[in-house]
Amino acid sequence: MNGPLSIGRRDFIKAGGALVISFSLAKPLLADERGRGRTPGPPDAKSIDTWLAIHEDNTATLYIGFAELGQGCTTALPQVAAEELDLPVDAIATVRLDTNVTPNQGGTYSSSAIHRGAPQVRAAAAEARQALLDMAARRLGVPVSGLSVRNGVVSGGGQSVRYGELVGGKRFNLAFTGTAPVKDPGQYHTVGRSLPRKDMRAKADGSYTYIQHVRLPGMLHGRIVRPRGQRAYQAGAKPIRVDEDSIRHIKNATVIRQGDFIGVVAEREWDAVQAAQQLNVVWDEAETLPAYDKLFDAMRASDTEDRVVKEEGDFAQAFEAAAHRATSICYGPYQSHALFAPNCALADVRDEEALVICTSQDIYNTRNGVAAVLGRTPENVRVQYVPASGTYGKSCYDDAAQAAAVMSRMTGRPVRLQLMRWDELGWDLYGPAHIGEARAAANADGRITAYEYHGWAHHWSLIETTQQLAMETPVAEWPFPVSQEVNPLACGGMYAIANQSLVNHRVPGGGFLRAGWLRSPLDLAFAFTSEQAIDDLARSLGRDPYLFRKANMADERWEGVLDAVAKASGWEEGRNVRSGDGDIVRGRGIGLGTHLASRGGAVAEVEVNRRTGTVRATRLYGAIDAGLVVNPGIVESQIIGQLVQTASRMLHEEVRFNEIGVTSLDWNSYPVLRFEDCPEVTPIVVQHLDEPSTGAGEEAMAATAAAMANAFFDATGKRMRIFPFTPERVLEALAA
Amino acid sequence: MAKLRVNGAEREVVSSADTPLLYVLSDELGLKGPRFGCGLAQCGSCSVLLDGAEVRSCVTPLEAVQGRSVTTLEGLPALYAAESGRRDAELHPVQQAMIDVEAMQCGYCYNGMIIKAVELLSHTPDPADEQIVRAMNGHICRCGTYPRIKSAIRRAARAMRGA
What is the pTM assigned to this prediction? Predict the structure, then answer.
């Protein structure tokens, strides 16, 4: 993580200084890296040197395009390279993401760092190893077939040579063809093991560098100035009057304006904070949003764009003919990334190059956005990534990057922009609200014969707030359906059902809140809706909900993940765990779900206070089958986070708003789960060494949402049709 | 010019008297432990020990800490060494326990988590689970690592009692 920082800016080098990161000079550049970073990327993905460098001291640097978001990819991807190269994992460093240095592997989302990244890293490392063996064969005069490698030392014919002696400090100058043979998983000694994460020590002792620690020489501190709480997406934020005199008493504070974009900069951070709070701006207070309690009505009343996602057999006929039918109509709220540390970004916009340091999940996409705001070509913009607090999707990181760039251009100085708590919560790209209607039917033998899902949601916001305000760019939404529309894998996809109909109703988003992907996008709402219908079918048939699901599985691996979580939770057939006669009742539920790949299962135990309406998740079990798991310990940690975060989202989290704007602006108005209601958790990793790796960063969440809903029913005999399960809603459901 | 003691060293700083301690520590003194999270004393990201008691540096003005002793995440090993009669310590046992159980994901909230746990164990060497929850409840972890933080605190408590 804290590996060598590539420096490509001649200005800095000429000035004799390094890019100053966290008050200390960056580590000296390794000899090999002198040539890196001087030209705009992405570097050539068809060259081995883009991916890997071997140093004279027999260590290596792996250049990956995936961001360390706290999920552990800067440990797991080196593990993959270490395996193929037969190097110790500690000998492999990674570098900060940089559009001039690191390859474009696409964004670090949809749990893709291992899913997409591991095969690329594996192939590159295998090809490098092949080249190293060829060099060793020539050096030692021994055929490749007579060589073996251990810890980066090639041996054969009674001689040995280290990788570092073969290519250390030099380039491979080799095309990356992807044709080198990779190791058989049966020979793995590094992959598949729970090796310790590389970033733990620095995170515990305070030496880890987060974006908040980065400083640029001569920089100003910036803050944005917006109304507290966003309006409807298309409404932007209209200042009617800005009284710049209102901050005249704050020394060195300056107002920045471009179009409707307003910010302040100051030499000292506290002055910038005060100036942003004290600048007197009269905002347009038009009522642009639906009333909070009319949100779902407004979505349904929208002129939707309807799309058939999946159509197999004849749902209507099968549903009508079935012996047992269930209908589940459910509602999911807007939820915020609510990232723990509001976004921060730095920019130094100069004629020859605009440098932006930020926390983007996708630096190449950020480069395009910043270029658009600055009116430059992407090649004139260099974007670097520095870790921040876990973003869990598209928070305000691009907005912050663009705002910092605007401020730097207008001041002619480097600017460090830190969003305040209310900026981040109030102007987030929320996980969108959802309406789901699931209908399922089974025959008397217990086979699910018909399944239908209708989903209503709007798409994600394509135009960042800064661009919208500064450039007056009309709003637009992400066009692609993936992760934004009814997900056939999460909606009934785990079951073998002959007659299916999945329909998406795309709501136009301009009159609603800003939206972006939030960990396991829409899947919690899908599974909450869908798996309650499946549970109702089981109960209608008098079947155990676990065995009913097991009898209807789509494949062995879905069955495997279901069995794994049932076994871990001590699920016994037909055992009713519903208990309690007084105010407190307890129940247990099971659920399945996933995101775009992998398979997730969960069992939940909840406790409901029938007098107060409070719900607690007392124990959660979560299982993921993600094929080959490179580092099971890291995936366990990911599952724990998914279980706890899902409990938070199901019990507490909801963006509140009125007709003017969002009112969830801090940790009181957007509460999340705390120590006091944290469940006991059991993570279960289903390992398949011989299957391709798929994602593991979010695939247990939908299942957990469903299991909690079904546990609530088990405890109370009532269904929750909307989350979060606030006391008010729980009391209403119990009275129904 | 204000004087305060930070991690055992006398420091003179030039920030104005009303500046929150957080900005003095991070901008003027270059410390990475205390860090911005909310500016509202709601999350615990910026916690430091002030004469041994956990405070939120984002709402503590510089003038309130004049002449007092501030300990940040960086200063915990030395604090532990002094309190346990060692010549030095590489890490505070709470820091070591967080590493041992691999508690962190993004790790941003761990400044506050570790500072608060150190404060707890300084007056409650063998905390019951409810005491841990009560002490830590004002600190938020968005990654959801609470279960491992709890086990790390228990582990650190055992280590410190055994020391």
Answer: 0.95
Q: Is B129 near chain A, with CB under 8 Å?
A: no
* C-alpha to C-alpha distance for B95 and A224, rounded to whole angstroms: 36
- The total of structural domains in chain B comes to 2
B79 and B156 share one domain = yes
Q: Please answer yes or no on whether B108 and A201 come within 8 Å at the CB atom.
A: no
Q: By the CB < 8 Å criterion, does B114 face chain A?
A: yes
Architecture of domain A10-204: 2-Layer Sandwich (3.30)
> Minimal Cα distance from A68: which residue of B?
B106
Q: What is the mean predicted confidence (pLDDT) over A637-660?
A: 98
Which domain, by its residues, includes B153? Answer: 75-162
Report the alpha-carbon distance of residue A217 to residue A209 in Å, rounded. Answer: 17
Q: What is the 3-state secondary structure (H, E, C) of A3-61?
A: CCCCCCCHHHHHCCCCCCECCECCCCCCHHHHHCCCCCCCCCCCEHHHHEEECCCCCEE
**A388-398 pLDDT tens trace:** 999 999 999 99
How far off is chain A from B40, nearest CA to CA, in Å?
8
Instruction: Check residue A184 and report its DSSP letter.
Output: P
- Interval B126-152: pLDDT, tens: 999 999 999 999 999 999 999 999 999
d(CA A677, CA B87): 40
Q: B40 and B117 share a domain? A: no
Q: At which residue do the structure tokens 């019951």 appear?
A: B128
Amino acid at position A78, single letter: P
Considering the domain architecture, whether residues B141 and B88 belong to the same structural domain is answered as yes
Q: Which residues pair with A329 in a beta bridge?
A: A437
- The rounded percent of chain A whose pLDDT value lies above 70 is 95
Of A201, A666, A675, the CB nearest to B146: A675
> For position B7, which CATH number holds?
3.10.20.30
CB of B35 within 8 Å of a chain A CB? The answer is yes
Q: Kindly tell me if the per-residue pLDDT of A229 is higher than 80.
A: yes
Token code pair at residue A280:
């007197």
Q: From chain A, pick out residues whose CB is under 8 angstroms from the CB of B16.
A: 270
Per-residue pLDDT of A167-204, as tens digits, reads 988 999 999 999 999 999 999 999 999 999 999 999 99
The boundaries of every CATH 3.30.365.10 domain in chain A are: 10-204, 212-286+343-418, 293-335+430-735
- For the cut 60, the answer to whether the pLDDT of residue A206 exceeds it is yes
Count the Cβ atoms, other than its own, within 10 Å of residue A140. 18
Residue of A24, A194, A200 to mutate, testing the B interface (most B Cβ within 10 Å of its Cβ): A200
CATH of A212-286+343-418, one of 3.40.50.10490, 3.30.450.20, 3.40.50.720, 3.30.365.10: 3.30.365.10
A182 alpha-carbon distance from chain centroid: 29
Last residue of a domain, which of B45, B72, B99?
Answer: B72
pLDDT value for A580: 72
The average pLDDT across B6-17 equals 97
What are the chain B neighbours of A199 within 8 Å (beta carbons)?
A: 104, 107
Q: Are residues B116 and B40 in the same domain?
A: no
Architecture of domain A293-335+430-735: 2-Layer Sandwich (3.30)
Q: Is the peptide bond before A4 cis (omega within 30 degrees of 0)?
A: no
- B61 with B97, same domain: the answer is no
pLDDT beyond 80 at B96: yes
Mean pLDDT of A536-564: 97
pLDDT over 50 at A3, yes or no: no
Question: Is A653:A709 a contact under the CB 8 Å cutoff?
Answer: no
Secondary structure (DSSP) of B23-88: HIIIIIS--SSS--S-SSSSS-TTEEEETTEEEEGGG-BGGGGTT-EEE-GGGHHHHHHHHTT-S-
β-strand pairing of A148-150 with A220-224: unpaired
* Prior bond of A521 cis (ω within 30°): no
ipTM topping 0.90 = yes
